[in-house]
Design goal:
Elements: H1 2-14, H2 17-20, H3 22-32, H4 34-61, H5 71-89, H6 96-101, H7 104-119, H8 123-150, H9 159-185
Helix pairs in contact: 1-4, 1-8, 3-4, 5-7, 5-9, 7-8
């Protein structure tokens, strides 16, 4: 479990600098340059991600059950993950959904984490998906406050590009539930 927690600290810590200390990020970029910041950020994030995958795999070898999720939570999780994939696919879009939610990728991570949290009941699941959910809630709130403070508004462009992106996201979600989740994670969502 320690490897998983260390990975979460590194990965989510790197992704939390703008939440807790945006000035630090700006100072480092000003002093060292954007390339150095991106390099450090990338190395820490990749190392954290590798430790998360490894640590979660280790934790799954000797799971510590906390609760037994009802079967309906797995069905709900499938649907919520479809929405999560569609939202993540909207990252960088300029359509009406982006205008309404502001940060669709962070919202998608929030939905993904919630879906997995309600449908899995081991200690490792609660630590992993609970950490991502707490991070996504904090990051989304910080991003919206930052937008408000800086006067950022997202103009609603046409629907078509967003519909295409959401379709791609849903196609990837379908591939995940049909075979990628089993292949990558070892769990068949429909099984």
């Amino acid at each position: 479990m320690l490897v998983l927690i260390l990975g979460l600290i590194l990965f989510l810590g790197a992704h939390s600098v703008r939440i807790w200390n945006e000035g630090l990020r700006d100072r480092l970029i000003a002093e060292r340059g954007a390339g150095v910041w991106k390099g450090i950020y990338s190395i820490v994030s990749i190392l954290g991600f590798v430790l998360i995958v490894w640590g979660y795999g280790l934790a799954r070898e000797a799971p510590i059950p906390i609760w037994e999720p009802p079967i309906w939570t797995r069905h709900l999780a499938l649907l919520l993950n479809g929405a999560a994939f569609a939202l993540v696919a909207l990252n960088g879009s300029k359509g009406p959904v982006r205008a309404a939610v502001g940060h669709p990728m962070i919202l998608g991570v929030k939905v993904w984490a919630f879906a997995h949290l309600i449908s899995n009941g081991t200690l490792a699941d609660i630590i992993l998906f609970g950490s991502f959910l707490v991070w996504a809630v904090a990051d989304y709130a910080a991003a919206r406050r930052r937008d408000k403070r800086q006067g950022v508004t997202y103009m609603a462009g046409p629907w078509r590009p967003e519909l295409i992106r959401m379709g791609v996201g849903l196609a990837i979600w379908l591939a995940f539930i049909l075979f990628l989740h089993q292949w990558l994670i070892g769990v068949a969502p429909l099984g």
